[in-house]
Write a structure and sequence with these properties.
Number of helices: 17
Largest sheet: 6 strands, mixed
Strand content: 15-25%
Number of strands: 15
Helix content: 40-55%
Shape: globular
Distance between the termini: 23 Å
Structural class: alpha/beta
Radius of gyration: 23 Å
C-alpha cells in the first residue's frame, strides 16, 4: 500500500500470495477507497509472467468483456504462456459472473484476479457462477496495526508483541504483557478513533484535509456509488437512516423503530440495511445464547467498519477527551480489532432482563466475555451473571489505559488498554 510515498504491506497481501500459483480465480472485495486497486497493482508488479491490468471503469474495456470476453484474453495472452489477468471493479460488468466462468473454462492457463466494491452484487450476480472456481478475500480500511505500520513502524513492532500476548491470553496460554509507551499509543489511538483507516486519510497529516477527504469519500461512495448503483429513489430517507445509525453505533438494530422514525416501510428499511452491510459501511453481529427462554436470539447489533467515515456522517471530529460518544467509539474500535482475529466468532450477550456483555468470543472451544469501558469500573451484575452461568477461564475488560488482573470465582479477569488488542 502506497502511503505518503512509502510502500506499506496490507496483511491481506500475504494471504493472497499463497494462492497465486493455484488454478482458482482470486477475488478481492471491499468498499471503494480502501486500497483494492493499489493492492492489486502491488501484486501485479511482483509477477514475472505475462500479465495485464484492466480498469473496468473504462467503457471500451468493459464493453469488450461484456460482448466477447475471449477477445480480451486473446489480446494479451501469448501462445503457450500463462497469463495473469487483473480485472478491477468487476461489478461494473454486466453478467460478469458468466464472463469470468467462460474465460476460466476456456483458458486453464489464465489466472484471474478481480476486485469488486459491492458484496451484494458479487453475491447475487457473480459468485453463483464461480462456485469451486474462486477464492474470495475482503479488504477493509486499515486496522490499527496497519495504521501504526504507516505512522510509526517502531511502535507497530511493540504493538504486535502486545497483540500476540493478548491472543495467547484469549487462549489461556499466557498473561497479557505489561503495556508501554502509553502516551504515544494513546495519541495515535485518538487520531485513529476520530479519522479512521482510509488510506488517503492516513496519508494526510493536516486534520482539515483529513476531514475534507472523509467528506469526499462519503459523498462519492455513499451518495453516488451506492445510491446510483442500487437505484435508491428516496435518497433523503436513505441518508437519514445512515445518520441515525451513525449516532447509535453499538446499539441493537431495531428495524421497526427506524421504520417508525423515518415513516418508511419495514421492508424498505431492511433493504437499506442490507445495502449498507454489503457496501461495507456497517457490520452486524448476532447474539450469543444457549438459554432459549431468557437470552435474546434474533436481535443484532451494528457497528461501522470505519470510524472516520462514521464521524464524517455526523460531522464530529472532536478529540476523544471532548466527546460524549467516546465510549461508543471505543467499543466500535474494539469490535473492529476483534474482527481481525482468525478462527473467532464475535457475538454479544443480552438477557430479557437486560443484563449485557459487549462481546462474547467463541474461539476454538472457548467462550470469552469482553466488556469495553472508557475508565476502569468494577464489573456489573451482568458480567458476574455470565461468568457464573458459563464459567469461562478468562474474561476481559478493555479500557483506555488501565492494566491489572482480578479473580472472579475460577475466572481470571484482565483489564487491558485498547491499544494492546
Amino acid at each position: 500500500m502506497n502511503v505518503g510515498g512509502k510502500i506499506y504491506r496490507r496483511k491481506l497481501e500475504g494471504k493472497i500470495e499463497k494462492f497465486l500459483k493455484r488454478r482458482e480465480m482470486i477475488g478481492i472485495k471491499g468498499a471503494r477507497q480502501v486500497g483494492k486497486t493499489t493492492l492489486m497493482k502491488i501484486i501485479y508488479d511482483r509477477i514475472d509472467n505475462a500479465k495485464a491490468f484492466i480498469n473496468l471503469d473504462l467503457l471500451d474495456m468493459r464493453r469488450t468483456l461484456e460482448e466477447n470476453p475471449l477477445d480480451l484474453v486473446r489480446r494479451y495472452k501469448e501462445e503457450g504462456k500463462k497469463l495473469y489477468l487483473f480485472l478491477d471493479e468487476i461489478q461494473r460488468v454486466e453478467s460478469a459472473g458468466e464472463k469470468l466462468k467462460v474465460i476460466y473454462d476456456e483458458y486453464p492457463d489464465v489466472k484471474i484476479i478481480f476486485s469488486g466494491s459491492s458484496s451484494l452484487e458479487l453475491k447475487t450476480n457473480i459468485l453463483p457462477f464461480l462456485v469451486g472456481r474462486a477464492f474470495i478475500f475482503e479488504l477493509f480500511p486499515f486496522d490499527f496495526e496497519e495504521f501504526l505500520q504507516a505512522r510509526d513502524q517502531g511502535l507497530a513492532k511493540v504493538f504486535l508483541e502486545k497483540k500476540r500476548s493478548f491472543e495467547k491470553a484469549l487462549e489461556g496460554k499466557d498473561e497479557p504483557e505489561q503495556p508501554s509507551f502509553e502516551n504515544e499509543f494513546l495519541n495515535l489511538l485518538d487520531e485513529y478513533l476520530v479519522y479512521g483507516g482510509y488510506p488517503e486519510v492516513i496519508k494526510t497529516k493536516d486534520r482539515e484535509t483529513k476531514k475534507m477527504i472523509l467528506k469526499n469519500i462519503a459523498s462519492l461512495y455513499i451518495e453516488k456509488d451506492i445510491i446510483t448503483f442500487f437505484g435508491i429513489r428516496d435518497t433523503s430517507k436513505f441518508e437519514d437512516l445512515l445518520k441515525m445509525l451513525a449516532f447509535r453505533i453499538g446499539s441493537i438494530l431495531s428495524i421497526s423503530s427506524f421504520s417508525s422514525a423515518l415513516k418508511t416501510g419495514f421492508k424498505k428499511i431492511e433493504d437499506y440495511i442490507e445495502i449498507l452491510r454489503h457496501s461495507y459501511i456497517i457490520h452486524l453481529i448476532r447474539p450469543f445464547y444457549q438459554n432459549l427462554v431468557t437470552e435474546l436470539r434474533k436481535s443484532k447489533k451494528f457497528y461501522f467498519l470505519d470510524l472516520g467515515l462514521r464521524n464524517s456522517l455526523i460531522d464530529n471530529f472532536l478529540p476523544i477527551g471532548n466527546r460524549s460518544d467516546a465510549g461508543n467509539l471505543l467499543e466500535n474500535f474494539v469490535f473492529r480489532e476483534l474482527l481481525t482475529l482468525e478462527d473467532t466468532d464475535i457475538r454479544y450477550w443480552r438477557t430479557t432482563g437486560k443484563a449485557e456483555i459487549d462481546f462474547v468470543l467463541r474461539r476454538r472451544d472457548k467462550i470469552i466475555p469482553i466488556e469495553v469501558k472508557l475508565s476502569p469500573e468494577k464489573p456489573g451484575k451482568g458480567f458476574h451473571s455470565f461468568i457464573n452461568t458459563y464459567q469461562p477461564e478468562n474474561a476481559f475488560i478493555i479500557t483506555l489505559k488501565d492494566f491489572h488482573r482480578e479473580r472472579i470465582n475460577s475466572c481470571d479477569l484482565f483489564y487491558i488498554p485498547a491499544y494492546m488488542i
